[in-house]
Amino acid sequence: MNPSRARLALIVGLAGMVLLVAVIVSPLLLMSPPSFLGDGGFSVDCDDTAQVEEVSDSASSDIPDEYLGLYKEYGRKIGVQWNILAAVGKRETDHGRSDLPGVKSGTNSAGAAGPMQFLISTWGGKARIPASSDVNGYASDGDGDGVADVYDPADAILGAAKMLKRNGAPENVRQALFVYNRAWWYVDQVEEIARRYARSGDVKVPPQASRECDDPLVEAAPSDLVAKILQFALAQRGKPYLWGGTGPDAFDCSGVIYAAYREAGLSIPRTTFTQWPFGVKVSEGEEQPGDLVFFNAGPGTRPDSPGHVGLVVSKGKMLEARCTLCGPIKVTSYQARDNRVGFTRPLQNPDVVDQIEKLQNPL
Fold first, then answer.
1. 94, 194, 245, 296: which is deepest, by most CB within 10 A?
2. Cα–Cα dist 269/261, whole Å
3. What gap in Å lies between CA 260 and CA 265, rounded to an integer?
4. What is the pLDDT of residues 88-140, one digit of tens each?
5. Is the peptide bond before 64 cis (omega within 30 degrees of 0)?
C-alpha cells in the first residue's frame, strides 16, 4: 500500500474510534457525573441558606461596601439570595444614595420609607419601633441598638430579607418579589439586576428536595426509630403547604410531623397547640433529631401557646411546612428564626414510651 494512503487509513481509523467512543460515552454523561470530574463537578449544596454567589465586578463597583456586607450577611442568615436583596436595594433607592422623598426621612407619595422602601404599615406602624415591641410587621433591629429603624440600612435590609423569605424566597423568588412590589415589570427588573450582580450571571435556587441532602441526616439519627421518622419527613420535601393537611400530597406544619411519627408506628397529637404540651421539655442546646421546635408565630398565638412547629433533623436545622406563600416543605435553620419558644421530646412522653415498648416487644 502507498505510504500516504496507509497514513490516511490510520487517521480515518483513529477518528472512527474517537467518534465511536463519543457516541457511547455521551449518553452516560447525561445519566450521571463522570468520575474524572471529581466530587466537586456536580456536588449538591445541602445547606438551606442562600447559595453563596461570587460578587461580580459590576456589583463590586456599584454597591457601597457597607451595603454589600449587609446584603451578604442577612441573605446568608435568613436564607435569601444576597444578590436578590441587593437588586431590591438598587431598584428602590440606589442602595440608599437616592435623594428622593422617603429615603432618608418621611415617606414618598405611596407611603414608603427607608433604603428598602417599606410601607410604614408593613414595617410595623411607625418608622422607629423599640426592638422589644410586639409588632405586626417586618420591623427588625439589624444593628442591635434596640430600635427597629426603617431608615437604618442594617435594620431595613434585615427586614427585607425576612419579607422575601416569608413570601417564597429562595425557591420562588419571582413570587416573593411580586409581593414586595406588585408589578411583574418590577420583578423582571430586579431579577435582571440580580443577575448582573452575580459572577455566574444567575439567580441560583437551593436544591431543597435532593435525596443527597436527606441521606446524611437519616444516617446520623440517634436511633433506628428516629431514623424512620426522619426518613418519612424528609421524603416530603418539595411538597406544598396546606392548612390542615396530613398528606399524602400536602401538609401543614404539625401535620407533616404527625404523619412522620405515625409512619414510625407512633401516635402523637395532631395540632401544634396540642403537640406543645405533649412532649417533655428540652433545654436549648440539648435538642436532638426527632425533637420538636416551637415558635410564637401565627394568628392568636402567644409564648405559652405557640402556633408553629418544626421537626429537628440536626443541630440547628429543622424540617418545616411553613405557610402557603413560603415555598415547599424544606429544611431550614431554626437558630436564625425569631420568636422561638422552646423544644420538646415526644419520644419521652409516657404514652409514647408505652407505644415504643409494644413496638419493640409485641405480644
1. 194
2. 10
3. 9
4. 999 999 999 999 999 999 999 999 999 999 999 999 999 999 998 888 899 99
5. no
